Amino acid sequence: MILTDIIAENFLKYARLELRDLPAQGVIAIAGANESGKSSIGEVICFALFGRTFSLGQDDLQKLIRWGEPSCSITIRFLVNDQTHYQINRMLDRDGNHGVRLSLVETQESPLARGHAEVDEAVYDLLGYGYDEFIESYYLAQREIIAPQPHSQAVKSMAGLSTLEYVAYEHEQEIEQERDEIARLQTRIEQQDEALRELDLDPAAFGELESEQHALQANQVLLEEKGQTLETAFSGYRTMLPKRFSARRARGRARFFRFICLIGALLSAVSWGMLARLPDHPYSGGIESALKAAIPQWDSVQHLPWLLYAAGLFALLFILLWIRVATRQMKVNRLSEEAEGLSVALESALLSPLNGLADKLSAGDEASADETLPARIQAETISISELEPAVERIVDAMREQREILQQQGIRLGMAMQKEQGRLTKGEQIESVRQDLLQQRAGHERRIELREYALELLTGATRTLSQRFNRDLGESVSRTLPIFTDNNYQHLQIEDDLTVRVFSSQKRDFMDLEEISSGTQRQIMLALRLALAQALNQRTEGGRQFIFLDEPFAFFDHERTRNTLRALPELDERLSQIWIVAQDFPTGEAFDLSLACDRARADLVA
């Protein structure tokens, strides 16, 4: 930036300060005795741009107001990149009111920014630097010229390290945040672990309960099937008994009549054979006599064939009765098989090991009788009146046992439901735990990435710092011979900006303490100008002014003259050079000369 106009009222010693149409290139010399207001011009510029000065802190700004006046005001105009003309207006009163606005010179009615924060931000965006960089480079206040501090924000900004440092700081803050988040997540993970330990889940417990439930359900089904089978078998047995009794009676009658028919058939056949084949046999006469006694009308000649017919009839009846006996026997056998089904059902019920049923049945006085029921049924030595209560007792016992199994099933279902709830809760806890572990892994990964980025930033910072020091040394090496009349030509600038100068006479690098104070100030002035060049190059701000307040203290006339002649030729981008001194060597010509006087409260040029 190049200053074009400076206007101030009631600022420090000046009731009015008006510098218009300032030269954009060349040296502006400000001369005058002590306390004549030379340094006030630099403070006007500094305050106008940044709202503060080098000599006063923020709490003492009211001291900038001219003694006895209620307020002060400042207006400066400046060019940026030789194109855009800006204006800053500031006002300060003794009540602490401080107003500022930034506008284009052509359109002052519409400010670009208003207020401290907005104007400071806008100025930084326009110039590319702030107050700290300004006082370490372009503005040399009246003080001892010292070496720049390598860790100062201004030097870091000039070296281009501020952004890297800010990014590194942000990464470090993010790493701390990630670690805090990991610690928080770890606490939650430990809480989930503790919750899982408190649940004390057994992975096989639910499976065992499920197997037990299946076995219980199978036992219930089996017990119900046995009970139904026993009831059905007993019902069939009750219905079968009269049928079997009737079938046996019919079988007995058929056997009796079959026997009679067999005897009749044999007697008829024998009688016919004796009378027809052996009529003279003594037995034939007995048969004849018996027949006549039984049948008075008997005539052997006439009625003998009847014996043969009778034998055939009795034989036929025998066959029919034999068939009758066989069918009745088959029915008895079938009905007996039904009785055997009851025996099997009873034996199955009595021998059932289901949940203590056999023990329950064997606990009464009828235990021994119940155990012989199947055998007695098969042996048909038990009556229905004795069998019925025994069967009812067994069926009741099985029904009671089913109820017990149902109660066990209910309790088992409740246990399974409870265990399922525990498993569900455990799965939820584990799901939360896995999610927390994934989150922790994500934070750890982000820490790794940021730590790797910090390594890269550290390397980039080191490289930029070394390059900055190298460029700074080269820049000083071009300026220093001019300032020192070729007595000193090379500087060695370490990473901590420690300066050592090469002496051509001693042919070695020397510490600054080994050379005179005047030469030290020349070296520091060269270093300051090199910093100004570095900042201007970084910001790409075009032409720039520099303000040097008493840079020639302890300089002899020859060194001062050499420096004044060298400054305009130093860098075409540092074109507007303000120099403050008590006096200047005679015969030196400047682009603008300002003379300050203690007795005068105004300065107009």
Automatic annotation (TrEMBL):
The keyword GTP-binding belongs to this UniProt entry's keyword annotation: no
InterPro entries, alphabetized: P-loop_NTPase (IPR027417), RecF/RecN/SMC_N (IPR003395)
Domain RecF/RecN/SMC N-terminal: 3-582
Region forming the signal peptide: none
Gene3D superfamilies: P-loop containing nucleotide triphosphate hydrolases
Transmembrane segments: 256-275, 306-325
Alphabetic keyword roster: Coiled coil, Membrane, Transmembrane, Transmembrane helix
Designated name of the protein: ATPase
Species: Sedimenticola selenatireducens
